[in-house]
Design goal:
The structure is a homodimer. By secondary structure, chain A is mostly helical. Helices cover about 65% and strands about 5% of the residues of chain A. Chain A contains 12 helices and 2 strands, in the order αααββααααααααα. In chain A, helix 8 packs antiparallel against helix 9. The structure holds a DNA duplex.
Chain lengths: ~260, ~260
Amino acid sequence: MSDMPTPSKDRLPLVEQCTQRLRRAVLDGTYPPETRLPSERTLSEQLGLNRVTVRSAMTHLVAGGLLEARVGSGYWVKDFRRFGGLDLLPVLVEFEDPVPLARDLLAIRRQLAAMVLEQVRAVADEAGSEFEKADRLYYLEDAIAHLATLVDEGATRAELADADLEVIARLVEITGSRALQLCFNPLARVVHDFPALRDALYAEPSKNLVAYKALLRWIQGATDADPAALLKAMAARDRATVTALERSQKRMSGRTSPKRPS
Amino acid sequence: MSDMPTPSKDRLPLVEQCTQRLRRAVLDGTYPPETRLPSERTLSEQLGLNRVTVRSAMTHLVAGGLLEARVGSGYWVKDFRRFGGLDLLPVLVEFEDPVPLARDLLAIRRQLAAMVLEQVRAVADEAGSEFEKADRLYYLEDAIAHLATLVDEGATRAELADADLEVIARLVEITGSRALQLCFNPLARVVHDFPALRDALYAEPSKNLVAYKALLRWIQGATDADPAALLKAMAARDRATVTALERSQKRMSGRTSPKRPS
DNA sequence: CAGCGCAAGTGGTCGGACCAATGTGAGCAC
DNA sequence: GTGCTCACATTGGTCCGACCACTTGCGCTG
């Protein structure tokens, strides 16, 4: 099995491989902004792929804001710092120190979480006592219960992360804010695609769970928890996460140094 | 009328047309979540396009989180509320009331702006007096000056919006936070692709300019402006923007039914 | 030297072809 | 009748070769 020359299983589609390769080439400065990429035909020859495949990859990067396609002129590199989205972050980790990236990311998440709390409270107040029976609240309870089950069973951090995202999704759903929802989704994906951060986030899953349970009680009208305290606890957990990430990075240092000999 | 059978000019690429069409079909519920789309071959026949073209469009939607491709099974619709990004917002405006969308979007922007202010202040304090001469600050001044020129010249709102985004970009750049930068970019694009909101935002461009100038003075160390006041003013302007948007929507009501020539 | 025009190169679109993974149903064994 | 297997039709993934419209730049013409 290990001597298989072409392990057709669990292999990324060629388009995906090509996309990642080109994306990295753009992000690491191989192709700086305002320069032209080799033509589709040239690249397809260099990479040993069909032009259609290369083209599909290029299209992805265009959609992601990394490239601009000009008929008759070629593909031109745009400045990802000005046009890139959060989806670049997991890739960027390979070229920059992940610690500040993660710290800033968590800060953004916290800021948005504050908005969510605010909106949830407003919705809860408006709905009054009927709110407790609302389906959306029930789904939230359900998601938290599921997370609790996984914590008890000692699930992997990846599984915990998915369950956690489910909780957040339900929470955002309660706010009823479409914009907030669409803003959180890419953020959630980043955590999912950023393994080191994900693992650091769930180093102590029980603490996350405690916070969610307190949050749920608050939404239900309990007075033994208030949003300020919740956010403060979240900030503390985030700091611990960054510390954990720093440690894991230091542990791996020496071999993980990004290749930037220039 | 026109004898030209193919008005080759100013026509969107077929892939783009196909992408938009399919995206709308997903967003408006024609293809609900957890259902299967017609196969590539079927769609290419229905739409009169080549399979490669349809396929490219599908790939876009997969990348955007709207679809999932399963070999041998077909394309399956994912719930855009759970997997979509902010880039959907301008399209979503066609199916939902734009006012709450815009209001929530502005609130998010404001929240992130608060973070920017915080970070900028931190950077400025750290750099001390040398900061005033820093290139990044110079670029910010430059962008604001450019915006002022456009305001004086009575430029179109689209031009003003672009100049405004330039200012914001410079501001975010000063913070040095990659994550914040990548988080703001899609947000900026939304404003750019959301004409009604864009126009409402720059109904009174001079007011925006005043705010930016006060912001610049604050960064430079002046004491006649503080971040709390700046954010308060921003909130007031956002409220005015929403009001303007409401008015423009009311004015257009009765004719605003989305054009669906099927 | 200025201006023009043509050819090479580029992305965009097309048609057809084969492959591997999947889903389905007919047919078999029990 | 029930349950299983296996062949087959369907689907997305990849490849090939071709043509089109457009841009660019070089070289020719004046």
